[in-house]
Amino acid sequence: MPRIAGAEGQSEGLVLRWDSGGESRFPWFWLRDHGEDPASLDPATLQRRVDTFALDENVRGTAATILKRGAALAVTWPDSAEASRYSADFLATMAGLLPAEIAAQPGRAPRLWSARSPLPTPEPIAYAEIDAEAGPGSPGLRRCLEQLQRDGYAVIDGVPRDEETARRLFSRFGYIRETIFGGLWSLSAEMSDHDDTAYSTQYLEPHTDATYSHDAPGLQCFLCLEFDGRGGESLLVDGFALAEEMRAEQPELFQVLCEVSVPGRYIEPGVHLRTERPAFRLDPQGRLRQVSFNNYDRAPFLLAPERMRAFYRAYRDFHARIVARENWLTVPLRPGMALVFDNWRLLHGRLGYAGKRVFCGCYHNHEDYESALRSLNGGTKRTQDR
Predict the structure, then answer these.
(1) 363, 177 in Cβ contact below 8 A?
(2) What domain range includes position 333?
(3) What is d(CA 343, CA 350) in angstroms, rounded to the nearest whole number?
(4) Which residue, 36, 176, 231, 245, is the most exposed by fewest CB within 10 angstroms?
(5) Residues ≥6 apart with Cβ < 8 Å to 169
(6) How many Å apart are CA 331 and CA 123, to the nearest integer?
(7) What pLDDT shows up at residue 382?
(8) How far apart are CA 230 and CA 4, in angstroms?
(9) Distance between CA atoms of residues 10 and 121, nearest Å
(10) Neighbouring residues of 356: CB distance < 8 A, sequence distance ≥ 6
(11) Same domain (yes/no): 70, 142
């Protein structure tokens, strides 16, 4: 971890030298506003105690002292008897030298996969491993979260085939999200509760769910309760991998899908949901944050002729990649098998089938999935080294 090797006060702020080389600059007002000491930050809740709006906008530190062999820093101020304290890790993170805890994929980068790299082999996790111990320390839950973060999905086997067990299992990933389909919902061609192609035996092209929702679900969970027939294999496609291939090969088309907001809609009696967003959403650093692609639910929209042509070219290019069978990971879910996947990263589909096939499933918010990842990686620590 970086350590502070030197500190020099200047008129506009404090310059820190790192033991690894290089410098970082911090404005005085920012430092006064971001102390990690108990007077500035509640150690129990990690909520701000300092009154930002009562501070002198021209405040300037009177002294900066390196502590704990470079692991911490103290700054004294003319308006306070208490020094503000900061850990070197915190300052290095804010300076961009360490990964921020609010990264899209907290803890580690995903392993992208497609036909151009080895497709991952589903390694089912035994339900007993997850159910054996409550809390984030469960070894099975840890494996699930690690696989979700790395590959975008996890398979769980040996799950008792009842909805109450499914509810308990899926609640381990966060609270279950209520939608127009309910919390824990059932899925079968014999049901006609909703006007959706998923309630059929047809082949479903790879897609992401809820492109009509302002905040599309982050995780999607399925448990196979019954299957007596043939076909119906679940399909997974790594949308991040294919989008990155498109960025490398067709950067102009990639950019179009980053810019054009595509509307999605869901309509049934008493329900009319609609929103719009680009197919590719990036974070401020240009990294993929979300893929949103569902031609079934795309609502009509019209652009200027040249822009419309560019959109269709880009949309067609990405579609060709996701329907290419060599990019598919096929998962034959059978009774007692559960599938959990990242709906912001992976597209999912289904082969057509014959016979009886009954699933139950649910959604989770992406922020709760990210929270679970940060908890896994130690992000719930309530206090920091001073």
Answers:
(1) yes
(2) 125-376
(3) 15
(4) 231
(5) 127, 130, 131, 156, 159, 223, 338
(6) 11
(7) 42
(8) 63
(9) 56
(10) 188, 190, 226, 227, 228, 229
(11) no
Same domain (yes/no): 43, 154? no
C-beta neighbour count of 373 within 10 angstroms? 20
Torsion sign across C-alpha atoms 197, 199, 205, 206: positive
CATH number at residue 189: 3.60.130.10
- Cβ 84 vs Cβ 74: under 8 Å: yes
SS3 annotation, the chain: CCCEEEEEECCCEEEEEECCCCEEEEEHHHHHHCCCCCCCECCCCCCECCCHHHCCCCCCCCEEEEEHHHCEEEEEECCEEEEEEEEHHHHHHHCCCCCCCCCCCCCCCCCCCCCCCCCCCCCCEEHHHHHCCCCCCCHHHHHHHHHHHHHCEEEEECCCCCHHHHHHHHHHHCCCECECCECCEEECCCCCCCCCCCCCCCCEEEECCCCCCCCCCCEEEEEEEEEEEEECCEEEEEHHHHHHHHHHHCHHHHHHHHHCEEEEEEEECCEEEEEEEECEEECCCCCEEEECCCCCCECCCCCCHHHHHHHHHHHHHHHHHHHCHHHCEEECCCCCCEEEEECCCEEEEECCEEEEEEEEEEEECHHHHHHHHHHHCCCCCCCCCC
Same domain, 130 and 89: no
Within a domain: residue 383?
no
Number of domains composing the chain: 2
pLDDT digits (tens), the chain, 386 positions? 889 999 999 999 999 999 999 999 999 999 999 999 999 999 999 999 999 999 999 999 999 999 999 999 999 999 988 999 999 999 999 998 876 554 444 556 799 999 998 899 888 999 999 875 555 567 889 899 999 999 999 999 999 999 999 999 999 999 999 999 999 998 876 655 655 565 677 889 999 999 999 999 999 999 999 998 888 899 999 999 999 999 999 999 999 999 999 999 999 999 999 999 999 999 988 999 999 999 999 999 999 999 999 999 999 999 999 999 999 999 999 999 999 999 999 999 999 888 888 999 999 999 999 998 888 766 544 434 33
How many other CB atoms sit within 10 Å of the CB of residue 234? 23
The alpha-carbon radius of gyration of the chain (Å, integer) is 25
